[in-house]
Amino acid sequence: MPNRTPDAQSTARVTRTGAGLAASLALAAVLTAAAVPAQAHTPPGDRHGRPSAASCRGQGVDPDAKIRYETDMVIDAPLSTIWKLQTDVEGWPSWQPPVLSAERLDAGKPRKGSRFHWTTPVPATPTTPATTLGITSTVRQIKDKKCVLWTGPAIGEGLTIDRGVHLWTFTKVKGGVRVHTEETWTGEQVEADVALSTQYLGMGLEAWLRDLKSAAETR
User: Fold this and answer.
1) What share of the chain is helix, strand, coil (3-state, %, to 5)?
2) CA-to-CA separations, 198 to 43, 65, 157, 184, in angstroms, rounded
3) By the 8 A CB rule, do 77 and 177 touch?
4) pLDDT digits (tens, 9 = 90+) for 96-150
5) Residue 198 — φ and ψ, nearest 5°?
6) Distance of CA 144 to the CA centre of its chain
7) Residues linked to residue 159 through DSSP beta bridges, in sequence order
8) Of 108, 135, 139, 156, which one has the greatest count of Cβ atoms within 10 A?
9) 0.90 cut: is pTM over it?
């Protein structure tokens, strides 16, 4: 993953209260120097466990998840370009180095119930081995050029994230489009070290946003 400096308008918030997520580039980002400096984030617990107000058609991430991260970034590109990059799952490997493969499991325009499978490598941690995660995601809610919410397990040799919930929202603002994302994880292995898992999740989401920004602004 390229080591790009986070956008100045990017903000991040972390909280440790709750339970639930799986499908993300979170752990994969550790393979590179894409980490965001710790001081860029609000310390865990500062949001006092309040669930995020963000949602897609009334649905959001798991409010009870112990592992949770949210962040956003303004991208100076047309909303249509950003939306196409994000929802064209099979195109992810062309602009996201951590995505090894990605395929739709159904045909047609992405819709509620659409499923896709993708893979991403993850490094060894003090408690889990290096492996490749296979992630099968199901779209739970989607609104054209507004939001998308998907969930699913991530399974690799020696590592499983039981359930992931990943939300994206897209809002036109001065200077471009504010892309907001948040994700929660649940699972015995990742919950064994909530702080470390939250750190990896955050690194992955920040890297995903930077890759999306780079791809959208150069098209």
Assistant:
1) 25, 35, 40
2) 11, 11, 21, 9
3) yes
4) 999 999 999 999 999 999 999 999 999 888 877 899 999 999 999 999 999 999 9
5) -65, -40
6) 19
7) 156
8) 135
9) no
